[in-house]
Amino acid sequence: MTQGTMRRLPASFDAQQGLLSAAGMDVDISEALEPAGLTIDDLVYEDSRSLEWRGGEPTCLTSFGPVVEDVPVVSFFTGSGGMDLGFEAVGFAHKAAFEISEVFCDTLRMNRPNWTVFGPPFHTGDVSDFEAVVRDLSPLVSSPFEGVFVGGPPCQPFSIAANQRFSKAGPNFKRVGFEHAENGSLLFSYVQLILEFKPAVFVIENVPGLRDVDGGDQLSLAIGMLEDGGYRVAEPSVYDASDFGVPQYRRRMIVVGSRLPGDFAIKPIGDPVGCGGVLARLPGKGAFNHDTRNHKVMSVDRYMKLEYGQRDQLGRVDRLDPTRPSKTVIAGGTNGGGRSHLHPEIPRTLSVRECARLQTFPDDYRFAGATARQFTQVGNAVPPVLAAVVAAEIGATYF
Questions:
Q1: What is the pLDDT of residue 270?
Q2: Please, are residues 218 and 187 in contact by the beta-carbon 8 Å criterion?
Q3: Are 260 and 201 in contact, with CB atoms under 8 Å apart?
Q4: How does 202-233 read in b/e, with b if 16+ C-beta sit within 10 Å?
Q5: Exposed (0-12), middle (13-18) or buried (19+): which is 192, by Cβ within 10 Å?
Q6: What pLDDT was estimated at residue 339?
Q7: pLDDT on residue 158
Q8: In whole angstroms, what is the distance from residue 158 CA to residue 176 CA?
Q9: Residues belonging to the active site
């Protein structure tokens, strides 16, 4: 992963405070700093560089070698491709992807023009349209399919973070799960496709809430359908990406089933990696998706006084501790990106590129669309490194 360049040494905290105070609290930070020839990346916190990540390098996709050769994989609810990149890294051959969001499809096609992507504007990409998916996929794969299906049905109905955006008095506050008219049924749409094409192995990926909603009854029903269809299904397990070299705390539920002999299980591959391992060096000049927010001076003034790990209560953003994995990168709502965390050493929120580093996307992987939609793509993704760990184990166990 390309890290970029180190920042130049900044002026003192007191001098910077004076500069901001003279400019006025209600102006944009870029306007306040321009006369001094500075940018926000030259600013420091009151407590600056007293902590530093001195551990090992974070795991990246290039850390993985080939485990299989040309075993085909089809993805559903592909998003920006985090799961697909992980499977690609260990030797799986991308056969097709189904994604309903046009901007996500734009990202997939921009980065992997050789992939077959079913989605807008050429297809609907709608996994719930069973007949359309069968019509599109049948010319590409046989049944039974001697490859892998991977899919993470949209997680919003099951996500605690998603529901925290709603008022407690509102109808969306509780995790409505499978009662959600649109997204709650997509797990069963995916199950139906697995039973139709009979892949050798399938993966269901989601937030931990999918395992627990409705007392686990709905997930148990889905697993029962798959077992009746001839699959051995491993116990649904929740893994934290930070246990696998990802510099971010991020819990995901993984369910793997197969009609081949073997037992799927993954184990932590090392100690957690501090987020400073990917944030200490700024993305280089011309880096993709690295536009930073033009905060108001009043916001930056508050941020500069935060300690490591402390939250700015007004903005509800947290300064990251470089010696610990980042807090979970948040996707945000349908119409916009979530609040990103504060950089450990620069009093501003992270850019899309910096969030993508926390998610273990390579620096040359670009995200299409407006900045808010870029944040959504990054925050919705499975960390590619976690996906590669899952893919490597599937390859070693079943192929």
A1: 83
A2: yes
A3: yes
A4: bbbbbbbbbbbbbeeebbeebbeebeeeebeb
A5: middle
A6: 63
A7: 45
A8: 7
A9: 155
Residue length of the chain: 399
Contacting residues for 381 by C-beta, under 8 A, at least 6 apart: 79, 80, 81, 82, 359, 361
Tokens of 170: 């509102």
Q: Evaluate whether 178 touches 185 at the Cβ level (below 8 Å).
A: yes
Which regions of the chain does DSSP assign to beta strands (E)? 72-76, 93-98, 117-118, 145-151, 199-206, 232-233, 237-240, 251-258, 311-312, 317-318
Q: Say if residues 316 and 339 touch (Cβ distance below 8 Å).
A: yes
Structure tokens at 376: 């959504």
User: Distances in Å between the alpha carbon of 231 and those of 134, 146, 149, 252?
Assistant: 20, 14, 13, 22
Fold of 61-271+380-398: Rossmann fold (3.40.50)
Name which of 262, 229, 204, 200 is nearest 71 in CA terms.
200
- Predicted pLDDT of residue 159: 39
Report in angstroms the alpha-carbon separations of 366 from 95, 110, 396: 21, 8, 30
Residues of the chain within CATH 3.90.120 domain(s) are 13-53+273-368
Can you name the CATH fold of 13-53+273-368?
Answer: DNA Methylase; Chain A, domain 2 (3.90.120)
Give Dmax (Cα) for the chain.
71
Q: What share of the chain is helix, strand, coil (3-state, %, to 5)?
A: 35, 15, 50
Cα 268 to Cα 125, 165, 239, 256, 390, distances in angstroms: 34, 32, 9, 17, 11
Outline which parts of the chain fall under CATH 3.40.50.150: 61-271+380-398
Nearest to 358 by CA among 264, 243, 265, 278: 278
The list of the chain residues with pLDDT below 70 reads: 1-10, 155-184, 214, 332-339
End-to-end CA distance of the chain: 29
pTM of the shown model: 0.90
How far is residue 365's CA from residue 210's CA, in Å, rounded to a whole number? 29
Torsion sign over Cα 124, 129, 133, 135: negative
**Residue 377 CB-density burial (10 A; 0-12 exposed, 13-18 middle, 19+ buried):** buried
Pairing label, strands 237-240, 72-76: unpaired
Tell me, what amino acid is at 324?
Answer: R
Contact 205, 83 (CB under 8 A): yes
